[in-house]
Amino acid sequence: MTTEETANSLVRHLRALLRAERLIGEVRLQAVLKRSGLYAAAALLAAFGLAMLNVAGYLALVPRFGEAGAMLAVAIIDFVVAGLLVVIAARVTPLQIEVAEELRDQALAGLDAETRIAVSEVSGFVRRPFQMAGAASILVSIVTTLLRARHRR
């Protein structure tokens, strides 16, 4: 493989890595928007529905439990319904994120391989090839660590 081919291959891997990172960001944004919509719907439902349910429940329970007992029963039911809605909203997860992460990992592996090839080709022109290879290895490790740290956020 010539130096030009190696450079082109490196650029291809970097572009693939950037596309994968952008795709991961877009998928995560879509998931956040979906979750936010469900949280908003849950809040709206809680505001309108619970007002009517609370009044009706309170009026139905007063003869049996008294005023304080009826208020407590209605409040407990409100919290259970709100908790169920939050659990449902939290379960919305994108399926495409796994594909995007796999694409990113492949791009990182290809970038690592191409960097090692480029370092081995250039090492013949450099006085201290071991230091150059060490620097490239450190650079690849730093880029990989940064991308993985960004992924965890």
Q: Can you put this structure into words, describing what you see?
A:
With 153 residues, the chain is mostly helical. The chain has one domain. It has 3 helices and no strands.
| Average pLDDT reading | 79
Main beta sheet strand tally, sense and closure: none
Structural class: mainly alpha
Helix content: over 70%
| Shape call | rod-shaped
Report the total helices: 3
Strand content: under 5%
The tally of domains stands at 1
Q: Which blocks of ≥5 consecutive residues have pLDDT under 50?
A: none
Work out the radius of gyration. 28 Å
**Topology order in helix (H) and strand (E) letters:** HHH
Task: Note the gap between the termini.
Answer: 38 Å
Number of strands: 0
Oligomer: single chain
Summarize the structure.
The chain is mostly helical and 153 residues long.
Characteristics of this structure?
153 residues, mainly alpha
SSE arrangement:
Blueprint: H1 3-90, H2 96-122, H3 129-152
